## 1
Amino acid sequence: MYNKIDIRNVPEEKLDEIDLDTVDLELPPPELEPHRQYYYIAKCRTYVRQMAQELGRVPFLCTQTFGCQMNARDSEKLEGILEKVGYQKTEHEEEADFVIYNTCTVRENANQRVYGRLGYLGSMKKKKKHMMIALCGCMMQEPQVVEKLKKSYRFVDLIFGTHNIFKFAELLCTAMESDRMVIDIWKDTTEIVENLPVDRKYSFKSGVNIMFGCNNFCSYCIVPYVRGRERSRNPEDILHEVKKLVADGVVEIMLLGQNVNSYGKNLEQPVTFAQLLEQLEQMEGLRRIRFMTSHPKDLSDELIAVMANSKKICGHLHLPLQSGSSRILKIMNRRYTKESYLELVERIRAAVPDISLTTDIIVGFPGETEEDFQETLDVVRKVRYDSAFTFIYSRRTGTPAAAMENQVPEEIVKDRFDRLLKEVQEISKEMSGRFEGTVQEVLVEEVNTQDPSLVTGRMGNNLLVHFPGDASMIGSFCRVHLDTCKGFYYMGTPV
Ligand code: SAH
Ligand code: SF4
Ligand code: F3S
């Protein structure tokens, strides 16, 4: 019927555009990535088409994403592949034929949520035999998790980790051809595979990975163990991806990495994060640049200067504090002190006066005393964050802090947590209100979910504004007068 093509001969750039039904599957799979994955996508398509015929309808996929922005971006890649394979997205797990959980393990409660929902999925699968269940993400990199799944959750079809996510199409194919649980977990990787399909959640904004993994080994944190060593993408690949996104209608990007301030240090030709930003600044059509996350120890004066001079970098910086006690920071292996953090904040505010600062704080790290906690409150009062994520310390197996003997009793931690939250919220409310009466540029994101005569947009500093409008405005910029602040968002009027 078709002239079959040898996928190895397709230029990498064009892979996303070819008709996958013309790929010659009689040929062996290519060795080279990403060609190999496109070959397997084509192969999976034949299985899914068969399933669609048997079902008499399009099969549905449902992704559940836990954790950080990095996972959210990974899920867009998983969905990109699943859609090419022939599944259609649904929000409802109940009607899905393929369910994938992209997991997080940074705190214990993230894990518990996954186990809880898996039980429910298992009961669904009993009624729907053809249904497939896949698990991936950070939790899968923990051997004890995989053991538990093997023992008590036999109905899961496919388990893979963070390092081989680029092989998803191939693993999916293996799972479709097998009636056993398929498990593939790698310990680490140096590979970065570019140009795989992506299905973006928003047409006008996108996350862009600039680096993977983390080398910092903060003593409480499991991320370096489950995401591996730090690897930066080549600046040319990043610029190329952003250029393609902009051509496709994206006006705002969020550069993603566990520690963007150390971007580029290990490249063959080292580049600084500030230099990468300067190159992105030049890109025509790109309007807003955000990034996440900045480690205070690596935030350079060069970066502060670039931020001060930029017209595109948003006036928002997420600068995780974790603790305000220099003593605890040392045991956390954060490599800055209370004083150096405060001094850094001063330098940033001097260069970018209106900047919104947000942070992450952990309460109840092993050995934290009331005095240490008071130091944290002191920093919160001095910095006056626009908002702060507060976390109760969670003991993660395998991290140095988990082995420390002086774990803080739960009641004490809860009490400190409540006091911190109260302080953070009061300040946040005052800080959020400081733009009242001004006119700001807002990127419209969606029609308001409560009131369809309004749209909801985001300011550069990340705050939301609701104002009169309609769906045709989504993805465009509006100048909006901020009439009233309602705590953590504004009501406005377009000018
Ligand atoms: N790379 C980022 C953080 C990624 S994890 C950074 O260094 O800033 C996101 C947040 O989860 C961290 O900032 C920290 O506040 C919190 N977190 C990490 N491990 C935790 C643990 N064991 N218990 C509680 N919170 C934790
Ligand atoms: Fe975890 Fe620290 Fe790395 Fe952030 S910098 S991911 S907190 S080890
Ligand atoms: Fe969680 Fe992994 Fe992100 S552990 S916070 S999803 S890097």
Note: The pocket of S-adenosyl-L-homocysteine (ligand 1) is lined by residues 106-107, 220-221, 223, 258-259, 293, 295, 320, 322, 360, 362, 391, 393-394, 396 (CB under 6 Å).
## 2
Amino acid sequence: MNIIGTGRAHPSLTVTNDMLSTFLDTSDEWITTRTGIKQRQLISHVKLEDLAAEACHNALKDAGISAEDLDFIICSNVVNEYITPSLSCIVQGMIGATCPCFDLNSACAGFIYALDIANSFFKSKSDINHILVVCAEEPTRMCDWQERSTCVLFGDGAGAAVLKRGDDFKSIALSSFSSIDPLYQIRQLEKTPFITKEEFGGPLVMKGQDVFKLAVNASLNDIRRVVEENGITYDDVDYYLLHQANIRIIETIRKSLDQDKVKFPHNIANYGNTSSASVPILLDELNRNQTLNRGDTIVLSAFGAGFTAGACLLKWSKN
Ligand code: ACO
């Protein structure tokens, strides 16, 4: 499987740390030093499906194919306004595709999970030539905006990649282990006359330091697996593109692998944590600003609620 096109879309509203400090007991200094985030793009009037469709259009254009050429669409999403139909069905219609599609929810690791499924489709279905993966997320709608320890972390956005049959992807490692307590959100479903259990809903709950440790351990483990599987060393990897959750998580992983800063490009300062969209958004930035060179060895790694995590190793063959 090869990546032949990337795209992204951000909502137009920029919210700086200083803007947050007008209604929260926080500061630019605290947010910057603890997270690396300076500003984020937030959904105000736009709908998430509009951002998803825009990211898809940009990725298709970059790939030089049209929506009719797609054989499958996989959409990674944690939350959006529709419970049903799936976001992928909505986006399929908006971009004018007719192929089968479905959503997956593997939290912030969704892009890696979608890549693994796409890779399996290419191997098992001979009639599939192009797959579109789109990760569209609005985590800012999950937060309590009076709760300074969570709402400052997130941003909204969409990232997409067009995939084609090929052998650029060398390894994908996924890991999941049930650990709900550190990071969850519960929603209340509609009442029925028969419900007797106690039910409640509320905003995102996070134990930041637990998530920090889980993220670092899972990412290091997945990265080790894909690197070892290819018989190479950490030094042989040109770029590590990590989920943009916190610059300190990225730095802890980088130091542990004993790698140069230049190998860990990041954009968290501009966008915050956009959940599963963060890795394809970063990939698109690096594709478009021509940071990535043909033949580069790239590791992608993401981690999130569940706890779910995954990494993959690929050769970049796109110009
Ligand atoms: N502004 C000012 N002070 C704050 C803020 C804020 N926005 N948020 C928390 N504080 C305060 C706390 O109340 C606490 O005060 P206290 O000492 O008086 O009790 C103090 O700062 C320290 O809080 P900690 O939670 O210990 O701070 P920490 O250094 O752990 O940083 C953070 C918190 C940024 C959440 C960190 O734990 C983290 O990034 N964890 C990873 C979580 C993550 O990335 N989640 C994203 C979603 S999941 C994912 O994508 C993997």
Note: Residues 170-315 form a domain with the Peroxisomal Thiolase; Chain A, domain 1 fold (CATH 3.40.47.10).
## 3
Amino acid sequence: MQQRKVYIETYGCQMNLADSEVVAGIMNSNDYGITTDAADADIIFVNTCSVRDNAEHRVHQRLQTLKKYKSNSPGVVIGVLGCMAERLRTELIEKGNIVDLVVGPDEYRRLPELVENAMSGEKGIAVRLSRVENYDDIVPLRTEGISAWISVMRGCDKFCTFCVVPFTRGRERSRTLKSVVEEVRRLNDSGFKEVTLLGQNVNSYRDGDSDFADLMKAVSEVDRSMRIRFTTSHPKDMSEKLIRTIAENENICKYIHLPIQSGSDRILKLMNRTYTRAEYLRLVEKIKCTIPAVSLSTDIIAGFPTETEEDHKQTLEVMKHVRYDGAFMFKYSPRENTKAWEMGDDISDGIKVQRLNEIIELQQKISLEQNQPLIGQTVEVLVERESAKSSDEWMGRTDANKVTVFPKGDATIGDLVKIKIHKVNSATLFGTLEKRKVATLQESIPLEYWNAGINRHSRHLKSYF
Ligand code: SAH
Ligand code: SF4
Ligand code: F3S
């Protein structure tokens, strides 16, 4: 019998991208092939996000267009995975006769069995959340050979009042330090140059007596030429020990994503963020003093219930004070069953848009100002892939996570190169190749790393959600 093929489309955060690689790994080890072409697939998985209403809206629309694959070939199985599966459950199957399977983030081990059943016409729902599942033993099928995401903890116990994640992902649980270090070692052996440790609250990681700082240190010692990143950290769990660990280990990138959400103490309290503006700013000072070259980014929500013009101004003030290199900025979106849902949604869309635009405009100005001093400087960049705009150029990232574009020259993917910057805008650095620093990517990378087909609808931090 011909091998059945799975197509996976991913929405949402890096945790979802990492999960899609876990799903691909599970399906692959059960004799399913992976394809990048939905038209060629026997099974279509859509790994979804619920964080804001528009994230869900996009998936509903996409399901409508995926319907045609089923009409063309009635045996095709369509599965909704991820956070929408957890949140909407039966509703997804009942609506529109498109979806055969609904599988939440902790039930991916059951996918082969559920797919088999779906092939014989039995629709399936598996949305149990687990206190222990962390896919520790699953080898993810990764889609690129340079930079890998590793989920080191799952779930979230913080319960910020606006957020669905604690409901869609369940309670916090961590992988063992040993298994993470082993995975990093394997990735290093197969030529990966960068790993990003992931968790919704990655710095609350714990394995017995080991905390996140211990994990970072252990991972950074695997190979000092490997870059180590992490995301997302909650300000409350940003310990001094972790800050020192970042400072003391050269290969841990000097880049911290530290969501603030709002600059107003009143709103922070309503959000249950568990820190005040002053505490957050003290933390930022501590970080900047300990890691002088640090680059910071954040998440901000505009138009949380009851937010006044004064609250909004305080957010702008904090942005001016911290001077983030980048930010992900969102309009508040009420989510059913969260605490904030009960607070109503009293800020009109017009005002939300106006505040969000002011926030975006200010951040773009600051990002540009932060990038301008780099003109004339030489930065170190890990070459990731061809630039989206030109096949003559590569794109890569600096240690501070700044996207850098430059003519290819004799550099190749996986090289760590020196780039002299001659132009910047708020989002990108442009430069020329000064020097190739390390040898080309090892040729030992297994072909499946390059060919595995997990279609990305969000890539890296730029389109985080
Ligand atoms: N765990 C991460 C964030 C996960 S969600 C953290 O706490 O830092 C990513 C971002 O989406 C959040 O930081 C927040 O800015 C935004 N977000 C979450 N729920 C939202 C909502 N209901 N409306 C608008 N933005 C939201
Ligand atoms: Fe959501 Fe807050 Fe948890 Fe982040 S820390 S995932 S915003 S509840
Ligand atoms: Fe979205 Fe779920 Fe991630 S809600 S942001 S895909 S954890």
Note: The two ends are 39 Å apart (CA to CA).
## 4
Amino acid sequence: MCGIVGFTGKAAPEATEKCREILLSGLENLEYRGYDSAGIAMAGEGEGITICRAVGRISNLRKAVAGCQPQGSCGIGHTRWATHGRPTVENCHPHEDEKHSVAVVHNGIIENYQHLKEELQRSGVEFNSQTDTEVIAQLLAHHYSGNMKDTLQKVLPLLEGSFALGVLDKNQPDCIYCARRRSPLLVAQGKDGSYLASDVSALLAYTKDVTYLEENGIAVLTPDSIRFYNENGSEIHPESTHITWDATAARKNGFEHYMLKEIFDQPTALRDTLNHYVDVELGCIRREAMPFTPEQAKALRRVTIAACGTAYHASVMGQSLLEQLAGIPALAAIASEYRYSNMPPVEGEVFIAVSQSGETADTLAALSYKKAQGLRTIALSNVLGSTIAREADAVMYTLAGPEIAVASTKAYLTQVLLFAILALDLAHLRGVIDDAKLKEGIAALAKLPEQVEEILAKQSVVQDFVQQQKDCRDIFFIGRLMDYASSLEAALKLKEVSYLHSEAYAAGELKHGTIALVDESCLVVVFATQTVVLEKTLANMEEVRARGAKLLLLGHFPEGAPEDCSLWNIGKTSDQLAPLLTTVYAQLFAYYMAKLHGCDIDKPRNLAKSVTVE
Ligand code: M6R
């Protein structure tokens, strides 16, 4: 989600200038990873550590660096996509301990940071930020033994969650220490010094031979050498990798388009979001992360949700999840319609605005409308500190990381996941389900990332199918209940990136008119995951088959597909979660159809990522 860069250079007259430039231009190359704030820390013999930070783009950091003139030939830098604490200077990386002896940049999420912070506070440590990262800097200083590598080995096992770290130690001003767990980090030896980065795109200007740190590994960089250690502290000698990508391909992690990269980001996005709200091992919800107290949950009588586009489709899923899992009456509405609807508020009603960007004008207007009615409001957003997140009374963030492609993919899956977590929490607080059922529900959520990975591993099945659809111009997506919401999202995804005509229908509605359009030239995609209406959905499929349509069936059918029908199977899960899995297939389908038709996938015609006009 964020970006890290580091450099320690050999002594030379221009060493300070060179180090600053490597850090700043490295961060510019990583800006696509996060761009709400950035900072660098530099160290030099007799200089201590100087930290320079700025809110906003790297161009702001450049101005700040020109003002504060940090000295030294060794430094670390970070561009941030905020997860804990708003994008302010205090929350920018690098973070340091209270004695200014250690500086840290961090990608990832420390799940137990609150607990660690409270322990340190009890022993008198004072904190300056709201971030999880500052805990690492304070812990390293607190446990410092005079040897940073040994200190890291002592501190890293205390951290739960994921991290890629770059650390400066005031006592060794030409050294960078780094470590990682479930978050990538790579290093490289150049002729002028040693480099560190979270993504290869930051280093391609200097070298194409890089070494990836192993899981739980540590590396120590000096200007002339890089030494690697495994989890137990034993020195190891990993092989380097020669990168053949150019800088643009590297930013997309080797994927041809951001849309495909973001589809493949989804297992991580789901894991990060889930771990933020749920303790999977204990099978319980993290109370402090949720927007409802037990009293508020019991007083709840109705939830109204408003959003636009894909976020609206996630809201339709949310409506079903709240109704089915928690028994709470819910209504999902299109924000641009709802804001003019004159809907009187109901006693015990809560309003939820859903927006990836947190800046969509119509969603913001719907939020203001409900606030003016005196309702309690909650935002579901992917962007920390966005307008919608700030305006609402409470906020739940999706931890999907920056979504760059115009077509929303990972934001959708994580929005639906948030609704599932919220519905389970409310069901539990209202006594609809007991502890055992809550645990069962959480266990099902915890399987999702792996199930998504299994579908992604079958992308060639989608590619092959798409190759056979060259002449297809009309595509209908049909399904019932939550599968209808999946159909809406699948049709939108396909039309926005491939410009093909596609429509979504509640399967039972076809025979009330639309079936007149169906003939041999159509492809009908059938979502069939909802057990209670499965037979009815399959009967609707037969109706379109009888009109000569080509058929594609999505669901859990281990016994195989009906004759003359292509089948994309998903793993076994609950009816409530199955639509998340079929959606991954639909995203891949839209992507490969767009590719087949040579469309500008990441920037479709007439569309913008953030719609800030009404
Ligand atoms: O940032 P938001 O979630 O509020 O954006 C809402 C829609 O504009 C957005 O989902 C749009 O429909 C996407 N292009 C769909 O892929």
Note: DSSP finds 19 helices and 27 strands in the chain.
